[in-house]
Write a structure and sequence with these properties.
This protein has 421 residues and is mostly helical. The chain folds into three domains: 82 residues, Orthogonal Bundle (Annexin V, domain 1), CATH 1.10.220; 98 residues, Serine Threonine Protein Phosphatase 5, Tetratricopeptide repeat; 195 residues, no CATH class. The longest helix has 27 residues. The structure holds zinc ion. This is GIT ArfGAP 2. One of its GO terms (molecular function) is zinc ion binding.
Length: 421
């Protein structure tokens, strides 16, 4: 099935055997120990996923495998390959090295400082360089050469670059050419499938027009990645985009808590945020969902390891220096929310994301509920023991206090899942 399980695979950072994690934005595979360092640096440096225990969109995994097999790691270790660097005493980490400080220092230098990436000759105007690189990216994505594009992105090419003469973005080009792995890479680097070109068309439009059905469907998924991930976190399912269902809003069973004055006030506050601030909060919550899920996978896969958990835990979101200190503090506070509080926040964000996208949430809610129920009927829940109540997902509404909580179910499922590993 997968070409991945070959014994020759080694950790990109320490050359240790059998790497079981991937860094998606770096296009590499890494071992548990190095992964613990990657996690501590934050998603803005490295987006880690477990190769077996994290659900993968197939083409995203294919992108990482392709990059890894084609030597993407040399992008991050460019100057180490230069014989002159041997003179300087710089070297890769070894599998036998200690995580702290040896592996950690190497990994920080490699990805945080980009100490070994090939530097372009200095120019007076950085923006000119970035523009040139972005133009190169724009033309490279029509080919299948992923490493070239990752190299350009690593040097500062912009995934969302709008080409002034061509009137479109790299993702438009990749979509037109049916380059699904390039589209995955661009999306990891923040390309937006909903961007319009000079004639008002999106990359999704071009993928459909060109008959690239899988790519078109995948781009729709990418467009809803944030809210889909939040819904999946709570209820283990994603909306059925192909049938026009773009949001699942799980509902808490004990709505008494939902209806507390405090919760109402929080909801009001959320609704009053500008779109920009709401997007920031939603992204922060997404990062926290990722931290919690990756933590769960981490704990589940480390049972028999000698790693000391205290030194490898990521107790709250690492600081992203590009964010204000207020935002970083807010992000870290998300770790203090207990499962119920966090689920409530996630549901509020999902409801409000839907409201902001579709306008009045009650107007189309009935159709949406029906669609969700149809989806439930055709897709029996994995969990069987407490299915005495139907697994309703409903548009959050104060009039339905009796619905089963998918959120608490999901958290039960998670704790069950943890024990099972
Ligand atoms: Zn390693």
């Amino acid at each position: 099935m997968s070409k991945r399980l070959r014994s020759s695979e080694v950790c990109a950072d320490c050359s240790g055997p059998d790497p079981s994690w991937a860094s998606v934005n770096r296009g590499i595979l890494i071992c548990d120990e190095c992964c613990s360092v990657h996690r501590s640096l934050g998603r803005h440096i490295s987006q880690v996923r477990h190769l077996k225990h994290t659900p993968w969109p197939p083409t995203l995994l294919q992108m990482v495998e392709t990059l890894y097999n084609n030597g993407a790691n040399s992008i991050w270790e460019h100057s180490l390959l230069d014989p002159a660097s041997i003179m300087s005493g710089r070297r890769k980490a070894n599998p036998q090295d200690k995580v702290h400080p040896n592996k950690a220092e190497f990994i920080r230098a490699k990805y945080q400082m980009l100490a070994f990436v090939h530097r372009l000759p200095c120019r007076d105007d950085d923006s000119v360089t970035a523009k040139d690189l972005s133009k190169q990216l724009h033309s490279s994505v029509r080919t299948g050469n992923l490493e070239t594009c990752l190299r350009l992105l690593s040097l500062g090419a912009q995934a969302n670059f709008f080409h002034p003469e061509k009137g479109n973005t790299p993702l438009h080009v990749a979509a037109k050419a049916g380059q699904i792995l390039q589209a995955e890479l661009l999306a990891v680097y923040g390309a937006d499938p909903g961007t319009q070109d000079s004639s008002g068309k999106t990359p999704i439009d071009y993928a459909r027009q060109g008959g690239h059905r899988e790519l078109a469907e995948r781009l729709v998924e990418v467009q809803y990645e944030l809210t889909d991930r939040l819904a999946f976190y709570l209820c283990g399912r994603r909306p059925d985009h192909q049938n026009g269902q773009h949001f699942i809003i799980p509902q808490m069973a004990d709505s008494s808590l939902d209806l507390s004055e405090l919760a109402k006030a929080a909801k009001k506050k959320l609704q009053s945020l500008s779109n920009h601030l709401f997007e920031e909060l939603a992204m922060d919550v997404y990062d926290e969902v990722d931290r919690r899920e990756t933590d769960a996978v981490w704990l589940a896969t480390q049972n028999h390891s000698t790693l000391v958990t205290e030194t490898t835990a990521v107790p709250f979101l690492p600081v992203n220096p590009e964010y204000s200190s207020t935002r970083n503090q807010g992000r870290q506070k998300l770790a203090r929310f207990n499962a119920h509080e966090f689920a409530t926040l996630v549901i509020d964000i999902l409801s409000d994301a839907k409201r902001r996208q579709q306008g009045n949430p009650s107007s189309g809610s009935k159709d949406n509920v029906e669609l969700i129920l149809k989806a439930v009927g055709s897709q029996p829940s994995v969990e069987s023991q407490d299915n005495d109540q139907p697994d309703y997902d409903s548009v959050a509404s104060d009039e339905d206090p009796d619905l089963e909580t998918t959120a608490s179910k999901a958290s039960r499922q998670k704790s069950l899942g943890k024990d099972a590993h």
